[in-house]
Design goal:
The chain has 250 residues and is α/β, with parallel strands linked by helices. The protein is 46% helix and 15% strand.
Amino acid sequence: MTAVPDRFVDKTVVITGAANGIGAATARRFLDEGARVAVIDREAEMLAENLPIHDRLLAVTGDCTDAEALTSFHARATSVFGPVDILFNNVGQSGRERAGPFHESTEEVWRFVLEVSLLTAMRMSRLVVPAMRARGGRIVNMSSDAAFVGDAGIVDYATAKMGVVGFTRALARELAPHHVTVNAVAPGAIRTRAHDRLTPEVIERIKATTPAGYIAEPEDVAGAVAFLASADARYITGQSLLIDGGRWMV
């Protein structure tokens, strides 16, 4: 998890959902490696609390499910830092308290989960792709090992996150001739706010079903995202990297 100094100097990075957890850890990682970083999240206080004050950081408060908010954010980021070199479509979530067995679920929750976990990635990618086609670039999308394992109780979330995988593969094939790579990361159990709400019994069950035997930190995912965004990964595209301690092995 050691940062590589100056690896992303003169690169502009955009991250959605960066106020907490993986998004915030990834923003800090790119800053540590010299990038200019623009982030958006609806939680203004958390953006201020979890990210440093930095002349290479632009933090914008906005709802990622609002298409106009994303368009405005992209315009502001490119105005301040220039064209986007790296996009990390991080934002997404399950139905959380509204999650449950599929036969008891509602279409309202499905639509919310699909909106925040899939459509946000499509919208933000659509904004950066025109410039990337001319200049090259990197897109990293947030999936989940739940899409591969098929966890019960979060059918809508697993569906959205497998949609991210399909989106990643198709967009990667389209953009490969333009020197743009598109990959996905699919984390398993990561110590975020969502896990803070779980009971000790559930935490122990997660550990028991994870071959590595422990829950990872957001920085573990941030390191993988930084690798996929780097020149070292220039020949890797259309792939889904599971970061789950061996819970699902491709």
